[in-house]
Design a protein that fits this description.
With 213 residues, this protein is mainly β. The protein is 2% helix and 53% strand. The chain has a 4-stranded mixed β-sheet with strand order 7-14-13-10. The relative contact order is 0.14.
Amino acid sequence: SSTINATACDSYVSPSGNYTWTSSGSYKDTLVSAANCDSIITVNLTINNSPTVVLNSFPNDTICIQSSPIALPIGTPGGGSYSGTGVSGSNFSPSTAGVRSHYIVYTYTDNNNCSNSDSTLITVAGCVGINEFENYNISIYPNPTNGIFTIDMGKYDEIVNYTISSIDGRVVEDKSNVIDNKITIDLGNESKGIYLLKLYNTKSSSVFRITRL
C-alpha cells in the first residue's frame, strides 16, 4: 500500500485510470502488478476549480481590411493573454488577419495554475467603398435571418449587381443588372454562418455582413 498527495483542476483521473474524481477528498485506488498482486493506493486529493473567464465582444464585429488596428476587447479576470490570427500585443490588425472570420481567444491562469479561456468572433471584410451607398437609406432585413431576407434599396434607383459569398470565398449567388427596389434572397439551403453581400455597379460598391441562423 502507499499514499500520494495530488492536486488537479476540475477533475483527476485515478492512477489506475478506472475513476475520475471531481471533488477534494481521500480516495482509494487499486493497481494490479505483473504478479497479479494488488497494490492499494490512497490518494489525498485537492481539486481546484478553474477560473470563470469572460471575453467581451468587439464593439463592431465586422471590420474592413483597410482599417487601422483596433484595441482587443476586455477579458476578465485581468492579466490573461490573447491569441489568434491578427493579434499583436493589445491590438487586432485586420490587414494581418486577412478577409474571413477570426476567433480571438483570451486565456487566464490563476494562482492554482488552473486555466480557462473564452473567445469572440470578428469578421474582416474587403469593404471596397463600404460607405458609398450610405446616403440612400439601403436596409437589409431581417438580419440575422433564418434564410430569406430582403435588400431594400431605399432611394437608390439605378441598376446594381450583387454577389453573395461565404466567409471562405465560395460564391453562393451572383446577379447582374438588377433594377428592383426590393430584392428578396433565399439562403435557406445554405449552412448557418456568416455571408458577405456585395452591392456594386460602375459608380459604387459596398459590402454587408449577413448572419444565417
